[in-house]
Amino acid sequence: MATYQVDTEQHGELNCWRITSDRAELLIAQQGAQVLSYQRIGEPPLLWLSDQAIFRQGKSVRAGVPVCWPWFGNLQRNPQSVQNMFQGEQAPAHGLARGRDWQLLGMEESGNNLLIEFTLPEAQGELPGWPHDVELKLRMELGDQLQLTLTSYNLGNTNVTLSQALHSYFAVSDVRQVQVEGVDGLGYIETLADWEQRQQQGNLAFTGETDRIYLNAPQQLAIVDPHWNRRITLQASGSRSAVIWNPWTDRAQELPDMADDGWQRMLCIETANVWDDVVELKPGASHSLSVTIGSEAL
Ligand code: TA6
């Protein structure tokens, strides 16, 4: 029977919890209900935490799993129905949830697993420029794997349309040596070439800056990492789109919270609802977006 030790820690300006068991270690920030790192004992980390991460209020940490909500990326690139939800002036990239304090609802052991639940109370009508009434919860289940489930429940009396992502930063030995399985044959939007639509041939390998939205993505994707003799597995639900991002050399140099060579050790695969896969919630409706992160030896 696994037992979990929970310690509170301060990282810069952020309140965090470190959870340790004989199987894994998880670090979570209250801001954004953001998983900052996840490591299974005896393995390299599964989720990447930037060496130069900045732990500041209002700023998402370059690490783990930022929650992008109620829109993904640049709001102007979203369908009009998502743009119409926002009535503010400046729309921050990746929405409003990742830089705000969430509330911890509870942690409890269930069998061998630990369940952790957060909510963002401001999503019920108090987000700046976003006057809608949604109960937003992030549930984490830590066991042999880590499962994250983001649930949006429309409590208001008008439709709500949103895009979102669990913007996971995976740790890899060297991004130039890994491949993503599960994308062969998929259509994708190449955001670096004027958002042109293209088709993937074979596994995805990395030879330069990459920022793509894969459409009709399967529920299972994997990162094969021969140097670390490991396959990272992602099992999604409630999602038909996946964003794959690596900034490579020049973009990494522009990011103040990433070492110049930090791009070599990370790879984002973001379990998402974007592009033609946005979520429309009628009054009283809910949607759950989930990813389960695990690994296996090659
Ligand atoms: O998901 C890919 C992406 O939207 C990229 O375009 C890149 O900018 C990245 O997310 C990180 O965004 P951030 O706002 O966290 O720097």
Automatic annotation (TrEMBL):
It catalyses: alpha-D-glucose 6-phosphate = beta-D-glucose 6-phosphate. CDD domains: D-hex-6-P-epi_like. Its EC number is 5.1.3.15. SUPFAM superfamilies: Galactose mutarotase-like. The keyword tRNA-binding does not apply. Keywords: Isomerase. It comes from the Bacteria. Pfam families: Aldose_epim. Belongs to the glucose-6-phosphate 1-epimerase family. This is Putative glucose-6-phosphate 1-epimerase. It comes from Pseudomonas oryziphila.
